[in-house]
């Protein structure tokens, strides 16, 4: 029997809830990636290397990875709504201070602190929806929230890039920060009071044991690796492709920002991941997705703009397809302590973004573009192998 308890579609509180969570995604993922499209500009404006500039992405994603589990645990005691509102408001308020940074270390430190506060939103947003929205209406509500995440990340990259055409990097960053702050305020205003939340005492040892137990299952450990390697190589490509677009193809910052519209291919592919999983199975779907990531990277090697864009389109669609498949599979395997299983996947996901995305900067600085792509291609090749091993383990 369908679960009809909770907020139902068509009611005022349901509309407030989904708009609030949409705004939460717009605010926090805008804030998380607001410097990615402007990395080439930051290298010149602050006289730093591309690797150092990439720390403005690795610092917040790394801090988010470290804090996502504590934020989830705290929400069990103090409530999802409080964590959501406090996190979004603090993260976006701090974003308004970023343009005041006088040097790279200050900017990186502020971005790291911003990541600490951002962590509360992805840590508990889906849990809030699963608790408060009626089961029959949850898929639609979840989809709206995820679309807010994707659109927030897209706007966080495009707005600064477009503003760089007419102003300095400080004002460009401020423009993105203002939008993020307005969205956070909107979320805090609209989010309904949580009615179905029941606080429980914090048992740190119990939480840690559950998390470690998930890592002991080979199938889950392989899926966590998909999160780590997948986002790691994805961020590596998007961190440094802007330099390629400007230096090799002569594009302006605004045109480089438009390259991030390729993210829409990810929205298309992730929406179709479920149908593919039903058609061919989860294991084969992961294999095909990882192979497509390799193909996309290979196409981006030659010095032809159209071929590079085609390769990025295929790679982007394949990455989001793999991410959707792997993350959904975690929930199917982790039948006990599912929240902890999801937290471990997200931890791996954002650690990969931070660590791989930053270290690949050294490869970018020391290798040709072809050499750089070949080196980061190792990760999706490993994912192909991991998918085959996962199929064997899960069979």
Automatic annotation (TrEMBL):
UniProtKB keywords: Cell membrane, Membrane, Transmembrane, Transmembrane helix, Transport
Ligase in keyword set: no
Listed PROSITE patterns: MFS
TM segment ranges: 55-74, 83-102, 108-129, 141-159, 171-191, 220-240, 246-265, 285-306, 312-330, 342-363, 369-390
Main location: membrane
Domain Major facilitator superfamily (MFS) profile: 16-393
InterPro entries: MFS (IPR011701), MFS_dom (IPR020846), MFS_trans_sf (IPR036259)
A cellular component annotation (GO) from this entry: plasma membrane
Membrane topology: Multi-pass membrane protein
Cellular location(s): Cell membrane
GO-annotated molecular function: transmembrane transporter activity
PANTHER family: BLL2771 PROTEIN, INNER MEMBRANE TRANSPORT PROTEIN YNFM
Family: Belongs to the major facilitator superfamily.
UniProt-recorded name of the protein: Inner membrane transport protein YnfM
Natural source organism: Corynebacterium pseudopelargi
High-level lineage: Bacteria, Bacillati, Actinomycetota, Actinomycetes, Mycobacteriales
């Amino acid at each position: 029997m369908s679960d009809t308890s909770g907020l139902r579609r068509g009611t005022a509180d349901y509309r407030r809830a989904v708009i609030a969570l949409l705004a939460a995604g717009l605010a926090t993922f805008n804030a998380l990636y607001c410097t990615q499209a402007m990395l080439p500009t930051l290298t010149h404006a602050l006289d730093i290397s591309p690797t150092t500039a990439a720390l403005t992405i690795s610092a917040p994603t790394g801090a988010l990875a470290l804090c996502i589990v504590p934020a989830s645990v705290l929400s069990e005691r103090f409530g999802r709504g409080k964590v959501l509102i406090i996190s979004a408001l603090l993260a976006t308020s701090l974003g308004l201070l970023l343009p005041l940074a006088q040097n790279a270390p200050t900017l990186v430190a502020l971005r790291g602190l911003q990541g600490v506060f951002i962590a509360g939103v992805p840590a508990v947003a889906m849990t809030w929806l699963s608790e408060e929205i009626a089961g029959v209406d949850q898929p639609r509500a979840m989809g709206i929230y995820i679309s807010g995440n994707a659109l927030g990340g897209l706007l966080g990259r495009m707005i600064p890039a477009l503003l760089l055409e007419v102003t300095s990097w400080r004002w460009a960053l401020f423009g993105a920060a203002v939008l993020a702050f307005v969205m956070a305020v909107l979320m805090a205003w609209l989010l309904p009071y949580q009615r179905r939340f029941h606080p429980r005492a914090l048992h740190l040892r119990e939480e840690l044991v559950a998390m470690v137990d998930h890592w002991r299952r080979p199938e889950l450990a392989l899926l966590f690796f998909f999160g780590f390697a997948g986002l790691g190589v994805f961020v590596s490509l998007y961190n440094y492709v802007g330099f390629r677009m400007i230096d090799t193809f002569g594009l302006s910052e605004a045109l480089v920002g438009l390259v991030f519209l390729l993210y829409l291919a990810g929205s298309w592919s992730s929406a179709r991941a479920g149908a593919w999983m039903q058609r061919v199975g989860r294991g084969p779907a992961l294999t095909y997705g990882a192979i497509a990531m390799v193909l996309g990277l290979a196409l981006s090697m030659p010095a032809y703009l159209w071929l590079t864009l085609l390769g990025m389109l295929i790679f982007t669609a394949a990455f989001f397809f793999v991410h959707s498949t792997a993350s959904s599979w975690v929930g199917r395997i982790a039948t006990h302590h599912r929240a902890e299983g999801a937290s471990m996947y997200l931890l791996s996901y954002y650690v990969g973004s931070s660590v791989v995305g930053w270290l690949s900067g050294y490869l970018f600085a020391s290798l040709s573009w072809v050499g750089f792509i070949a080196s980061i291609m190792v990760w999706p090749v490993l994912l192909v192998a991991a998918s085959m091993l996962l199929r064997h383990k899960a069979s």
